[in-house]
Write a structure and sequence with these properties.
The relative contact order is 0.11. The N and C termini lie far apart (about 60 Å). The protein is about 85% helix and about 0% strand. The protein is elongated and about 55 Å long. The longest helix is centred in the C-terminal third of the chain and has 34 residues. The protein is built from five helices and no strands. The protein is mainly alpha-helical.
């Protein structure tokens, strides 16, 4: 039976060069624009789940520097998510009362 580390490592080796290049493009775009996973999924025609998996699980094996930058952005977005959600709800309720 393979360990969790062996499974993750084999996941990287199964990725083709094109997939690795796509993941690096996704990471660079996110770093430049500081966008969310949802916004990134609109630019790159993929699901949010796939993009999140690419950036969190596979990117660290490709580039640890990019991975650290992405982790900072994801943490920042997670902190801001509550405030953005509240602002959106307030906007929806103000429109419905008019």
């Amino acid at each position: 039976m393979r360990s969790k580390f062996q499974k993750q490592r084999s996941l990287l080796f199964e990725q083709t060069i094109e997939v690795q290049e796509r993941i690096i493009k996704e990471a660079n775009y996110m770093i430049q624009t500081r966008c969310t996973i949802r916004q990134l999924a609109e630019v790159f025609p993929m699901s949010k789940t796939c993009i999140h998996r690419d950036l969190v699980k596979i990117l660290p094996y490709i580039s640890s520097e990019l991975s650290e930058s992405i982790r900072e952005i994801l943490n920042e977005n997670s902190i801001e998510k509550h405030a953005r959600g509240g602002a959106k709800t307030k906007l929806l309720y103000s429109k419905s009362k008019k």
